[in-house]
Design goal:
The chain has about 100 residues and is mainly alpha-helical. It has 4 helices and 2 strands, in the order αβααβα. The chain is globular and about 45 Å long.
Length: about 100
């Protein structure tokens, strides 16, 4: 993998930057490629190091741990509220995309 911008993008460079850019309140991103071998494949074939550095600047916490499970919610009510909020935002984004054609 090269750090130069003039190299052609890898398959996940542009989609990841677009996705993270569309989520300005994102505080944590877990990519879950913790083993050295998996990280090598990630950066050889899917994602440039330069892209990951850009994502680091946009998100508070980015991890490449093998265990990418987020910390548990402190209560069931908070978990349900977070799920409902996420589904509402996804539904709005989907509906807007459908209307824009």
């Amino acid at each position: 993998d090269s750090f130069y911008d003039d190299d052609p993008p890898l398959p996940y460079d542009e989609p990841l930057l677009e996705c993270v850019g569309d989520l300005p309140n994102l505080k944590r991103l877990d990519l879950g490629h913790g083993s050295q071998e998996m990280q090598r494949y990630l950066f050889d074939y899917s994602l440039k190091h330069r892209t990951l550095l850009k994502v680091y600047r946009m998100v508070k916490l980015v991890t490449l741990d093998e265990d990418n499970m987020p910390e548990p919610f402190s209560s069931v009510a908070r978990e349900e509220a977070a799920k409902a909020k996420a589904l509402q935002k996804l539904g709005f984004k989907f509906a807007k995309k459908e209307m824009d054609g």
